[in-house]
Write a structure and sequence with these properties.
Largest sheet of chain B: 5 strands, antiparallel
Structural class of chain B: alpha+beta
Structural class of chain A: alpha+beta
Order of helices and strands of chain A: EEEHEH
Number of strands of chain B: 20
Oligomer: heterodimer
Shape of chain A: globular
CATH topology of the largest domain in chain B: Sulfite Reductase Hemoprotein, domain 1
Helix content of chain A: 10-25%
CATH class of the largest domain in chain B: Alpha Beta
Number of domains of chain A: 1
Number of helices of chain B: 18
Strand order of the largest sheet of chain A: 3-2-1-4
Largest interface: A-B, 26 and 31 residues
Strand order of the largest sheet of chain B: 1-2-5-4-13
Strand content of chain B: 15-25%
CATH superfamily of the largest domain in chain B: Sulfite Reductase Hemoprotein, domain 1
Shape of chain B: globular
């Protein structure tokens, strides 16, 4: 399954597209797509150029955890630097 | 130190104003990301994994206390209370907001700093020896030439769209602390048999995907022709360098495809056809720039300090720090102080806002207001009276900046890696942290002597792994982190590229492997020879055996 992720335009923070079409900071709340739906959702998201700087698809499990070859990278994006647990989303206790 | 003249100040102010407009147009949607990205990169603003990253230039690594305080202010006001010193004497902020960057650049401009030439296919911020103007072994201060290169290269219209980025380093000592042989152009200022000072011009070195040690294409270039000769090299590269393949676009590929002799002939031909007087600076201008780097008002002091010797005898910790972190100064009674940004278990190159301010204070009180950044991600107080060394050490201790490990096994270069960097395949920092913890015993570290470990999280080699005595390269294997070890590299005057010693290892196995390599060195070492010398004498075999025999 796929999810749409991006970096928010104004501060570069990691965001994911949720079911309601809003950007969320929590990967677990991201909308999950199969096949062509994912590409379509990404294409829509990329048109929202004043909201995000960059958008792409990531592989996720059915419960919304990072999956596939970029698991580590996307785990770090979702949480923050592994060497500074006081920074990034992980600092807020998520 | 160099001070901006009206041209520098105007140029930087205009660039910030221009970027402010570009940011506003990006935020309003007038500019797309594709349109904006090259503009932000021209101003040092990258987008990384978690946030934007702003890379600030520190030309030839020289900073004043005022500039360091400004960096601290930016870290506190606009970032998360810290900065990261890089392997090119720059500083990076990891969390700035896009909307804040014009204000950050304005703040930098107030302290005569900017983020120009820290990205893109231009001539990048010029680097130099961190001991410049202080080193006991230097011919003369290389920074006036670095500053001439900075002025010549900034917004140079002919060289703003090179095939690829272009890095120049300058040294003026026999002991090369600026890694000049692994730069696109390395310049080594030395004295010839007649006693004249001039440059050895080394071209085509570099790390990354295709590493090379550079070739000397000119043994002796009279100093006054520096800029015209650089321009000739850049012209040949700009015309002949490959633009069809990003992996073959650096000058090192051109130099090695043509052969160094051929390339040198092309440069000489171009140079002979140039009207040098249009480019080379007149003597008065060279002297004018040189005057900015006049030595500070050193006192006339005896070479040895009685109080220093007394303190050294009394405090073994201070004595250890002197042995590892102090270097010889050219002026009697003075010393160079290295400030390690590599505490055990720490993030190489990271420094907090408070530490920056503490260092600015120490520089103001004890080092003629000067601080240097090193390409090994440490800092330097270049001009400290020997009588003041104990006070400086105490001040550094209070700021947690007194780790006595310069050049030792825990003084590790590491790129930001996958903890921050969008290009990385693996993490680098945790490997550095774990190695420094494994070798935490200071006595053991010192007994091992000089041992340079350098770690990169991808093939782009920002962590200089190819020239590490022990190099570690992170590689991704189907989503898992593996690390490939190289041995015998050096980025100094005895430059060489490390040899790959075997298959990639897991992170855990990598830490163990470094320990086995070090144990093998210890067992085979002769007469206190350095690790690098032992490796060169013994070859890779004993180390390979130690690494893979039990596996």
């Amino acid at each position: 399954m796929k999810a749409v992720t991006a970096n928010r335009l104004d501060d570069g923070a990691v965001v994911y597209l949720d079911e309601s079409g809003q950007w969320t900071a929590e990967l677990a709340l991201a909308a999950r797509y199969e096949g062509d739906d994912a590409e379509a959702a990404l294409a829509d998201a990329k048109r929202r150029a004043t909201e995000i700087a960059d958008g792409y698809l990531i592989e996720v499990t059915e419960t919304g955890a990072p999956a596939g070859r970029t698991t580590l990278r996307e785990t770090i994006r979702a949480a923050g630097p592994t060497v500074r647990e006081d920074l990034g989303y992980q600092a807020a206790g998520r | 130190m160099y001070r901006y003249d009206e041209f520098d100040a105007t140029l930087v102010a205009e660039r910030v104003a221009q970027f402010r407009g570009q940011v506003a147009r990006r935020l309003s949607g007038e500019l797309t990301e594709d349109e904006f990205k090259p503009l932000r990169l021209m101003n040092g603003l990258y987008l990384q994994l978690h946030a934007y990253m702003l890379r600030v230039a520190i030309p030839y690594g020289t900073l004043s206390s005022k500039q360091m305080r400004k960096l601290a202010f930016i870290a506190r006001r606009y970032d998360k209370g810290y900065g990261h010193f890089t392997t090119r004497q720059n500083i990076q902020y990891n969390w700035p907001a896009l909307a804040d960057t014009p204000d950050i650049l304005d703040a930098l401009a107030e302290a005569e700093m900017h983020a120009i030439q820290t990205s893109g296919n231009c001539i990048r911020n010029v680097t130099s020896d961190q001991y410049a103007g202080a080193a006991a072994d230097e011919v003369e201060d290389p920074r006036p030439y670095a500053e001439m290169i900075r002025q010549w290269s900034t917004f140079h219209p002919e060289f703003s769209f090179l095939p690829r980025k272009f890095k120049i380093a300058v040294t003026a000592s026999d002991h090369d602390r600026a890694a000049v042989k692994v730069h696109d152009i390395g310049l080594r200022l030395y004295r010839n048999d007649k006693g004249e000072a001039g440059f050895e011009v080394i071209v085509g070195g570099g790390l990354g995907r295709t590493p090379y040690v550079g070739h000397a294409i000119r043994k002796f270039l009279p100093k006054e022709h520096l800029l015209s000769y650089l321009e000739a090299i850049l012209r040949v590269y700009n015309l002949q360098g490959r633009r069809d393949n990003i992996y073959k676009a650096r000058i090192k590929i051109l130099v090695n495809a043509e052969g160094a002799d051929n390339f040198a002939a092309m440069v000489e031909k171009e140079w002979a056809a140039m009207k040098k007087t249009d480019i080379d600076l007149p003597r008065e201008e060279i002297e004018r720039i040189g005057a900015y780097f006049a030595p500070p008002a050193f006192e006339t002091l005896p070479e040895e300090s009685a109080s220093l010797e007394e303190q050294r005898r009394r405090d073994p910790d201070f004595a250890r720090w002197l042995r590892t972190n102090m270097a010889a100064h050219k002026t009697p009674g003075y010393a160079i102080v290295n400030v390690s940004l590599k505490p055990v278990g720490g993030v190489p190159g990271d420094i907090s806002d408070g530490q920056m301010e503490a260092l600015a204070d120490l520089a103001e009180d004890y080092s003629f207001d000067e601080i240097r950044a090193t390409h090994e991600q440490n800092l330097v107080l270049p001009h400290v009276r020997k009588d003041d060394l104990c006070a400086v050490w105490s001040g550094l201790k209070r700021a947690d900046l007194a780790t006595p490990n310069i050049g030792l096994v825990s003084d590790i270069i590491a790129c930001p890696g996958l903890d921050y960097c969008t290009l990385a395949n693996t993490r680098s920092i945790p490997i550095a942290q774990r190695i420094s913890e494994r070798f935490a015993d200071l006595g053991d570290q010192e007994s091992l002597g000089e041992l340079k470990i350098k770690i990169s999280g991808c093939i782009n080699a920002c962590g200089h792994h190819h020239v590490g005595h022990i190099g570690i390269l992170g590689v991704d294997k189907k989503g898992e982190e593996f690390y490939q070890i190289t041995l015998g590299g050096s980025g100094a005057e005895d430059a060489s590229l490390g040899d790959i010693v075997g298959r990639g290892l897991s992170a855990d196995a990598t830490i163990d492997a470094v320990e086995k390599i070090v144990a093998c060195y210890r067992a085979n070492r002769q007469d206190n020879e350095r690790f690098l010398d032992a490796y060169r004498r013994l070859g890779a075999e004993p180390f390979k055996e130690a690494l893979y025999e039990a596996a």
